[in-house]
């Protein structure tokens, strides 16, 4: 198996502070994040969008594997993961993730596609990691 890493730096307080996110691959290298990008829609990244990107990528790769096992190959798949962060008690929690998949898969019928997409949603490693409500809207186009 593999082990990889991501890292974060932070300077200052919660509202005036500035952070930087990096990944081992270099895909992100000191990319800015902070309170304003997380809660006020300002430029920069935030943990929730990174979790969304990771979940969308993991789910889509898992579905590719599951499709292959069913002798199907996607011509194209596009997945979006909407991650909801809500205030709970004294803190915050990710309360749900909604996956939206649009896929072009020659030879797939909707019933089989829905079954395989559901397996990918339940079985991808990021889904297994997350302790939240995960929903899926999968469409063949």
Automatic annotation (TrEMBL):
The Gene Ontology biological process terms listed for this entry are: response to oxidative stress
Q: Provide the GO MF annotations for this entry.
A: peroxidase activity
Q: Which InterPro entries match?
A: KH_dom-like_a/b, OsmC/Ohr_fam, OsmC/Ohrsf, OsmC_Ohr_Peroxiredoxin, Peroxiredoxin_OsmC
Name any one Pfam family assigned in the record: OsmC
NCBIfam families on file:
osmo_induc_OsmC
This chain's protein is named Peroxiredoxin
Q: Which organism is it from?
A: Bradyrhizobium lablabi
């Amino acid at each position: 198996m593999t082990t990889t890493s991501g890292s974060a730096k932070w300077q200052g307080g919660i509202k005036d502070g500035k952070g930087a996110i990096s990944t081992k691959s270099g895909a992100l290298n000191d990319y800015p994040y902070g309170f304003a990008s997380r809660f006020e829609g300002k430029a920069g990244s935030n943990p929730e969008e990174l979790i969304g990107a990771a979940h969308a990528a993991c789910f889509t790769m898992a579905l590719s594997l599951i499709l292959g096992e069913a002798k199907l190959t996607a011509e194209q798949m596009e997945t979006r993961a909407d991650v909801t962060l809500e205030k709970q008690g004294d803190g915050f929690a990710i309360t749900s993730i909604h996956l939206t998949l649009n896929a072009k898969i020659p030879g797939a019928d909707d019933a089989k596609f829905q079954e395989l997409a559901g397996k990918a949603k339940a079985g991808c490693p990021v889904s297994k990691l997350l302790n939240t409500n995960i929903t899926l809207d999968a469409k063949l186009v």
